[in-house]
Amino acid sequence: MKKVSLTLLVSLFCIFQLSAQIDLGESKALIKRIIPTRASAFEVGYLPQENGKDVFEISSKNGKIILKGSTGVSIASAFNYYLNEYCHCQITWNGSNLALPKVLPVLKTPVKKNSDFLYRYYLNYCTFNYSMSWWDWKRWEKEIDWMALHGINMPLAITGEENTWYEVYKEMGFSDDDLKGFFSGPAYFSWFWMGNLDGWGGPLPLSWMKSHHELQKKIIQRERALGMKPVLPAFTGHVPEAFKKHFPKAKLKATNWTNGFADTYILDAEDPLFAELGKKFLEKQTKMFGTDHFYSADTFNENEPPSDEPAFLSKLSAKVYEGMQQADPKAVWVMQAWLFYSDRKFWKEPQVKALLEAVPNDKMLLLDLATEIEPVWKRTQAYYGKPWVWNMLHNFGGNVNLFGRIEGVANGPVQALNDPNKGNLQGLGLTMEAIEQNPVLYALTMRHAWDSSPLDLDKWLDGYIRNRYGKVTPENREVWQILKRTAYNGTTIRDGAESILTGRPTFDSTTIWTRTKLNYPPKELLPAWQLMVKSIAANGSKEGFQYDLVDISRQVLANYALPLQKKWVTAYRKNDWESFQKYTQEYLILIDDMDELLGTRQDFLLGKWIKEARACGFTPAEKDLYEQNARDLITLWGDANSPLHEYSNRQWNGLMKDFYKVRWQKFFDALTTAHQKGEKYQHETFEKEIKQWEWSWVTSHKDFMAMPKGNPNQIAQKLFDKYYVKIQQAYE
């Protein structure tokens, strides 16, 4: 392996180096947002980088806690480190603990940390829809604070991209009618931006474009004020169908994502218009938002190139970069390496090498998008000299499940840093498709941002428990040991299993996007549930404990659906209708019970998702459109015949009872009716009918509970008393 050149490292450092004139006011404001009544106990200051590395220092002076850092992110990370290590507090999406001691602990000697990772990357295109579709500035502000606290300094920033393109195309003479079928609805931007679909979920109101243009301004301003370098979008070739009308000689290629959507159109990179359009877009974007010279562009997201000839791929890559460079000579292309993972048959060594080597090493950054699942860097000679980022992907589609590769995340980044073949490893990141779940995995990954020494996972988990629950007891320590061995061992399946309850009704134990294979024997999770319920008296007042209690209870019940399904399937096949009625009724009651449990936490509310969607609309028609987008994404994903139905399934209050339960009830009724008539059940007929019912549900409007209801401790205890022995017997 060749050594990384000094010129490359200097070039990268110069591009990314942050000004010494950091905005200390923003750091103070962040602290005040998080602990408004105690913020005056903290002082902030600047500390220069050391050997090109970000650094922070924590000390005490005259009764104050002094936080110094090389950037606003460094200062925020120092603050988070102090909260974790000295105050035993914790900030997560799913239950925070900010019960600070009355007297803040002082440090006898200063603590200094630096980062071995130049880039600490955050977000995936999909996150912007599976989690962020309906976020307002208040929610974005909270997330940017979370980023800074966890050391993130390079977030993907693509909010409002549709408005930039709208203005570019309007200046090129396109009419609103030309563009009406181009822009997707708000829940589908990720796949629109990546060139997978046009128009679905639209037509997009102009009011959305304008409001989210303004939202992007706020996002970018705050991220930069804290010392982050946002990654902005660039042109990858995706153009409107009307492009043919305006430029009849343009070289266009129709492509199809093969997921139930119409063709989209890609402008050939060799067409002179390609670089010209790429330049127009970046110039317009820079005028609107400024630039930090990092641009995201993914040329073939789950779409195969028209040729596997290395010369073709090399020329294409060079043209994409040329479009960036013409607008910004300092441009660095940030590429998701997902294509090399998702289409390994196409992207062999000659193809990968050709695509990458057409761009100078210091002008491209590769995101190894799912390193904890499959480290692509190991089969590409560490991306042939390009700087690259180690990422945890973890969640696909926003599905709700306890899952993760906790050992891999604990050790992976450190092992990569110490690997002699690591090439130009420059970053650490999080590239999940959705957030606001399994908070332990995200805290653990970003622990490496400021400490790349080998990790004692059990010791780290003790700290996590203490910060989350207020104390470490033998019971909750054993809970996390069980979770580490079961749900979080993550070694035999790619992503977390779903419950059969969320699948379109079937006699099978799995469906296409409801994969029920667990990475552990489900009975082994039961003791964790028992210990959590036993710990209610000791820990039940803590938000983090309540979330974990509900989540573990939910997982146990979700797993139990499978053996219960087998009982009614067996009864049906034996023509035992008394048992069939008994077990199908229990199955439906299980859904009701899960719905009640999930309703105790805002993390699991369909009503919250829909309310936030409707709040984005300015007119009744817009509100209805956004509600339909919100309902569709998490159920059918597309139209009534969508092959992606259930890809983004959610175990949420409201969805369990109003969608999944009704489907199962209709299925059971169809089976019963056929039996009573002495006819053979026709599953194809049922499928046609249920698809139409599902589409009717997607296009309907209804208010669901948007605030939690009930005491999570009491309801978890009630369900434990009702189900524990029954589930234990089912597995025995």
TrEMBL record:
Domain Alpha-N-acetylglucosaminidase N-terminal: 28-105
Record-annotated Alpha-N-acetylglucosaminidase C-terminal domain positions: 460-722
Pfam family, one: NAGLU_C
Keywords linked to the UniProt accession: Hydrolase, Signal
Coiled coil segments of this chain: none
Domain of life: Bacteria
Domain Alpha-N-acetylglucosaminidase tim-barrel: 120-451
InterPro entries found in the cross-reference section: Hex-like_dom2 (IPR029018), NAGLU (IPR007781), NAGLU_C (IPR024732), NAGLU_N (IPR024240), NAGLU_tim-barrel (IPR024733)
Cleaved signal peptide residues: 1-20
PANTHER family attached to this UniProt entry: ALPHA-N-ACETYLGLUCOSAMINIDASE (PTHR12872:SF1)
Record-given protein name: Alpha-N-acetylglucosaminidase
Annotated source species: Flectobacillus longus
